[in-house]
Design a protein that fits this description.
Oligomer: heterodimer
CATH superfamily of the largest domain in chain A: K Homology domain, type 1
CATH superfamily of chain B: GHMP Kinase, N-terminal domain
Structural class of chain B: alpha+beta
Strand content of chain A: 35-45%
Order of helices and strands of chain B: EEEEEEHEHEEHEEEH
Number of domains of chain A: 3
Radius of gyration of chain A: 19 Å
CATH class of the largest domain in chain A: Alpha Beta
Number of helices of chain B: 4
Largest interface: A-B, 28 and 35 residues
Radius of gyration of chain B: 18 Å
Number of strands of chain B: 12
CATH topology of the largest domain in chain A: Ribosomal Protein S8, Chain: A, domain 1
Helix content of chain A: 10-25%
Largest sheet of chain B: 5 strands, mixed
Largest sheet of chain A: 5 strands, mixed, barrel
């Protein structure tokens, strides 16, 4: 496997014009736009704002109750809208919901749907680019966290992680913080497993 | 009476002009193409999306980046791109001379404007319509060349915030002292030199993103100055890249800053 390389904004990725996310093409060459890890033609940013895409599963906080629905804060530069038509529950300000991004238009009006109210728990805010690491390959990391801490963990693609249930919530939060700071390193799942075992 | 870019009135300080260049050495012992020592630390503020602290000679500057977030006031927002805002501020205690009360002045408004315009040409702002990206630069201690250090630190802070940019830019000034072109003037050279010229480069394309000059230079001196600055900016870029990479090589549990 090719070694991951940390690239900087403006760094050359390819001599040919290529379609790589978080990259741009100038005069027939491809350059990075962010600080990221580059390997095998894929660029993964190490930091950055959440950009909502349709079908993302997210955790949101109800920020306003309106006549026809709710404004939901989803850790993006934009507030999203949840229409009352889409749901059967009623929410109050401050409630946490797990939902799906339904539609994003060109001026970033965001509609979300399929909302489900989350049980009492705690919110951990991490950067959205770390979420794939918290979930892991085929859910390996998050399944391990769930079984080791006996908590229900909802990892939203937007960077909000909701921890609920009667388990050890503090340990789950600490493990998530650990994954956040070491997200770019190798062999993280094993290290988290050792950590969880040592804390039990 | 001549005013330099810092707005200090020469002579008002009552100081005699020192010999700026003598037997191959400048006032502080550097050669003509030598930079002062530069140290950059990235990710130093907890609540900012991106931040950087730079020590450039005796300059100490803190840069913070917030955003993209909803653009306020709304009449500033654009449906096509993110609005970039910049505030450069010099602390009242930052220099030997009286900088007056803190808050915007003629000089700091000008610098905020030129720094903002330098970044407008590299930030890919079309990705975030209806938002704003705020850059805050606080000069805690100044010793000449703060706008260049501010641009350099703000570029690191923007990269740290993960804001998409076409390039990691850096800036450096060149000056003319006792008839010689020299890079990175300190306060003495700034005040008593014949000319001072801050330049910001996009190292990928070689484009000039910020260019100011006061004093007089001939055509030849100008092109010599630009090539000196270009060489120096490559060295600065290396320091910037190291600072950004260090955040990931030695991850910190908490962000904090120690200013000595």
């Amino acid at each position: 496997m090719a070694e991951n390389r940390i690239v900087m904004p403006g760094e050359l990725l390819s001599e040919k014009p290529e379609r790589i996310s978080y990259a741009f093409v100038d005069k027939g060459k491809t350059y990075s736009t962010v600080v990221g890890l580059f390997s095998e033609g894929k660029l993964v940013p190490l930091e950055g704002p959440y950009e909502p895409l349709p079908d993302d599963l997210i955790v949101g906080i109800i920020s306003e109750v309106k006549f026809s629905g709710y404004s939901v804060e989803i850790n993006a530069p934009y507030v999203s809208f949840l229409s009352s038509r889409e749901i059967r529950e009623r929410y109050e300000m401050g409630d946490a919901v797990f939902a799906r991004v339904d539609r994003v238009d060109e001026v970033k009006n965001i509609d979300i749907a399929d909302a489900k109210k989350l049980p009492v728990g705690r919110l951990v805010k991490v950067s959205s680019v770390k979420i794939p690491r918290i979930i892991g390959k085929k859910n390996s990391m998050i399944d391990m966290l769930k079984s080791a801490t006996a908590c229900d963990i909802y990892a939203g693609r937007n960077g909000y992680v909701w921890i609920a249930g009667k388990g050890n919530q503090t340990l789950a939060e600490k493990a998530i913080r650990m994954i956040e700071t070491q997200a770019h390193t190798h062999g993280l799942t094993d290290r988290v497993a050792v950590y969880l075992k040592s804390q039990q | 009476m001549i005013c330099n870019s810092n707005g200090d009135k020469m002579g008002a300080t009552g100081k005699e002009k020192p010999k700026l260049y003598e037997s191959g050495r400048r006032v502080d012992g550097r050669g003509l193409a030598d930079l002062r020592g530069i140290k950059i630390e990235s990710r130093v503020l907890n609540d900012a999306d991106g931040s950087a602290y730079i020590e450039w000679g005796k300059n100490k500057i803190l840069a913070g980046v917030y955003g993209p977030s909803e653009c306020i006031p709304r009449h500033d927002q654009s449906l096509y791109r993110s609005v970039i805002k910049c505030r450069y501020n010099m602390a009242p205690f930052s220099g030997m001379e009286e900088h007056g009360r803190s808050g915007p002045s003629r000089r700091s408004k000008e610098l905020s404007k030129v720094i903002k315009e330098a970044f407008e040409s590299v930030i890919i702002s079309e990705n975030f319509p209806k938002t704003q990206i705020e850059i805050f630069v606080e000069v805690l201690q100044s010793d000449g060349g703060t706008r260049c250090a501010a641009v350099t630190a703000a570029a690191v802070a923007l990269a740290d915030a993960g804001i998409p940019m076409k390039d990691l830019i850096s800036a450096v000034a060149v000056c003319k002292i006792d008839g010689h072109m020299a890079v990175d003037p300190g306060k003495e050279e700034d005040n008593f030199g014949e000319s001072d010229m801050p330049i910001a480069f996009s190292p990928r394309t070689g484009e000039i993103l910020l260019f100011q000059m006061d004093g007089l230079l001939s055509r030849e001196e100008l092109s010599e100055g630009i090539s000196l600055a270009r060489q120096a900016s490559e060295k600065i870029r290396k320091i910037q890249v190291e600072a950004i990479a260090k955040v990931y090589q030695e991850p910190k549990e908490e962000r904090f800053l120690v200013i000595k």
